[in-house]
């Protein structure tokens, strides 16, 4: 796996993924503090100061280094920050990259998370050289499952975890191996030579 010391923002059809900075903390803290957004998230503290600290810490790493790095997701037409996605090499499984994603409530339901996560997964494979990309989610977080599925990941495991306060929670692991990556979508999604059934 590689470390990307030269990250260039990633453009998708409607979005721009760029490294998050401390200046993004206010916008991120605002939607991360929403109870519906925070419900299934791993962030313990979403007050502005804590988010600032965590942005500064993540901005100090290059993607592919141990630890999470975060990308702010901007809507290209407005330049507004609409969410964030992140990735981290798995500490216990070499070659595996974990991804995470969050959209501000007003930006949900537009396919933005799917679009951003697809780009993030491509980046993890193509630039960082990951063998496998995974996403963990709460078993109840159906929108998150759907985003993982639409980005090509498949449900591989259900598990029960115990939080620090002793409560148990049910989780799922979604996964995509490099060798199972879907073929690139052709322009216009039309049939390709490969997708046309051959006789014989
Ligand atoms: C998960 C999340 C990022 C999805 O963002 P989004 O931009 O709305 O996602 P998309 O628009 O790309 O839609 C993803 C799919 O989820 C589906 N979905 C949305 N809400 C749903 C619900 N309550 N139940 C089932 N499916 C749902 C959408 O219909 C869509 O699937 P479809 O295209 O087949 O219809 C967003 O809900 C969020 O930020 N949640 C809070 C943070 C969080 O839990 N993050 C994940 C942690 S693992």
Give short descriptive properties of this protein.
Aminopeptidase, 28% strand, alpha+beta, 200 residues, binds coenzyme A, 8-stranded mixed beta sheet
Q: How far do the termini sit from each other?
A: 41 Å
What is the averaged pLDDT score? 92
Strands of the largest sheet, in order across it? 1-2-3-4-5-6-8-7
* H/E element sequence: EEHHHEEEHEHEE
In CATH, the topology is named Aminopeptidase
* Number of helical elements: 5
Oligomer: single chain
Helical amount: 10-25%
The appropriate CATH architecture is 3-Layer(aba) Sandwich
Outline the fold blueprint.
Layout: E1 10-11, E2 15-19, H1 25-32, H2 35-38, H3 48-59, E3 69-75, E4 81-89, E5 96-103, H4 112-126, E6 132-138, H5 142-150, E7 154-162, E8 168-177
Parallel strand pairs: 5-6
Antiparallel strand pairs: 1-2, 2-3, 3-4, 4-5, 6-8, 7-8
Helix pairs in contact: 1-3, 4-5
The structure holds coenzyme A.
Coenzyme A (COA) binds at residues 37, 40-41, 100-103, 108-114, 137, 141-144, 146-147.
How would you characterize the overall build of this protein?
It is a single chain. By secondary structure, this protein is of the alpha+beta class. The chain has one domain (10-180): 3-Layer(aba) Sandwich (Aminopeptidase), CATH 3.40.630. The chain contains five helices and eight strands. It has helices spanning 25-32, 35-38, 48-59, 112-126, 142-150, and strands at 10-11, 15-19, 69-75, 81-89, 96-103, 132-138, 154-162, 168-177. Strands 1-2-3-4-5-6-8-7 form an eight-stranded mixed beta sheet, with helices on both faces. A hairpin with a 6-residue loop joins strand 4 (81-89) and strand 5. Helix 1 crosses helix 3 (48-59). The protein binds coenzyme A. Coenzyme A binds next to strand 5, helix 4 and helix 5.
């Amino acid at each position: 796996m590689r470390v990307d010391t030269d990250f260039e923002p990633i453009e998708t059809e409607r979005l721009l993924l760029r490294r998050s900075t401390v200046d993004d903390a206010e916008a991120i803290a605002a939607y991360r503090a929403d109870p519906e957004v925070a419900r299934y998230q791993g962030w313990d503290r979403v007050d502005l100061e804590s988010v600032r600290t965590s942005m500064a810490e993540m901005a100090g790493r290059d993607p592919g280094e141990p630890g999470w790095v975060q990308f702010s997701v901007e809507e290209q037409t407005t330049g507004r920050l609409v969410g964030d996605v992140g990735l981290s090499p798995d500490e216990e499984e070499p070659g595996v990259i974990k991804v995470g994603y969050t959209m501000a409530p007003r930006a949900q339901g537009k396919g933005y998370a799917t679009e951003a996560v697809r780009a993030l997964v491509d980046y993890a494979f193509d630039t960082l050289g990951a063998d496998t990309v995974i996403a963990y989610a709460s078993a109840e977080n159906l929108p998150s499952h759907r985003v993982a599925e639409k980005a090509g990941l498949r449900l591989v495991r259900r598990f029960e975890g115990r939080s620090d306060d002793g409560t148990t929670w049910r989780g799922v692991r979604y996964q995509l191996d490099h060798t199972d990556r879907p073929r690139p979508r052709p322009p216009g999604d039309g049939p390709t030579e490969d997708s046309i059934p051959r006789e014989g």
